[in-house]
Write a structure and sequence with these properties.
Rossmann fold; alpha/beta; single chain; Class I SAM-dependent methyltransferase; 287 residues
Length: 287
């Protein structure tokens, strides 16, 4: 059986430039507005397709180097294409941020937008690493998402996935167990995103081990769509095949369709697909 277009999209995380307009892209200027003075080296962690790096280079001629660390080779390739006009002002490296390796640069700004939840529960390692690598006086600008969660730790995208699984025949009450199935296997359990994101209080405790919180800003990320298909593509480009492995391969194309339908239904009921608090933390390493 051949994979559907949306399954291929999920596997390669493609279509993000378009999909991220719905939610993540709004972090970019919000974060870059917090950069002060004339930075020389900026490091973006989980740099995706290079959108933040490009804006930073355009905004700050002082930047001699904009560095991206990213796990997905497809995303690095897309970023390299996008950033080609900036020549040797750009360096992109494939990296797993849960096991960060030493880096030769001492950035005066480190950014990380819409990424930290993917590093749960190992965020400590990258936080300590950022503290060690920032240049004196430098800042770490971090955005974190905080969907409400239920007693099973599910919320945000998990809720839409739950609706999709129910539409495909699952009992609503059994969905937390479907997420947890396979716990202990390398590719087994799907940790709910609302658990990965932690609460603001929990995260504040973690950050304060390594950083002094200089300021915080809060906004609500509200997602609206034009049709169900738009959300299927947003889900595939953002979450890849993270959730689709909850269903057998033969049901996956249908799964992406069902997530889009669930989003469209929700917008009909509530006026939006999702409405989620986002926090921007401006951090300085502890002395
Ligand atoms: C939601 S996207 C955000 C991309 C970009 N920062 C933005 O704001 O649009 C999350 C990114 O984190 C990357 N990522 C997830 N886990 C990672 C890890 N362990 N190491 C490096 N990158 C990771 C993904 O490949 C993806 O590009």
């Amino acid at each position: 059986m051949t994979a559907s277009a949306v399954e291929i999209q999920a596997r390669t995380l493609s279509g993000y430039a378009d999909a991220s307009r719905l939610r993540q892209v709004h972090d970019r200027d919000w974060v870059l507005d917090q950069v002060q003075g004339d930075p020389e080296v900026l490091l973006d962690l989980g740099s995706g397709i290079g959108q933040l790096l490009r804006s930073a280079l355009d905004r700050h001629p002082s930047l001699r180097l904009a560095v991206g660390l990213e796990r997905s080779e497809h995303r690095i390739a897309e970023a390299a294409e996008r950033l080609r006009p900036y020549g040797d002002r750009v360096a992109l490296h494939q990296a797993d941020l849960t096991v960060p390796a030493p880096l030769e640069y001492r950035p005066d700004v480190v950014t990380m937008t819409s990424v930290l939840h993917w590093l749960y529960p190992d965020e400590d390692r990258i936080l300590a690493w950022v503290g060690d690598h920032l240049a004196p006086g430098g800042h770490f600008l971090l955005t974190t998402y905080h969907p409400a969660r239920d007693e099973h730790g599910l919320g945000g995208e998990d809720d839409l996935v739950r609706d999709a699984l129910v539409a495909l025949g699952a009992e609503r009450e059994s969905v937390p167990a479907v997420f947890a199935a396979g716990e202990g296997d390398a590719d087994g359990a799907v940790l709910p995103i609302a658990t990965r994101t932690r609460t603001v209080e929990d995260l504040a405790g973690l950050l304060e081990r390594y950083f002094r919180v200089e300021s915080v800003l809060d906004r609500d990320a509200v997602v609206h769509i034009e049709d169900a298909g738009q959300y299927s593509h947003f889900h595939a480009a953002t979450f890849g095949d993270y959730y689709s492995r909850l269903v057998p391969p033969a049901q996956r194309a249908e799964f992406f369709r069902a997530v889009g339908d669930a989003a469209w239904r929700r917008q009909g009921e509530r006026g939006w697909v999702s409405n989620m608090p986002v926090r921007l933390w401006k951090l300085q390493p502890r002395d």
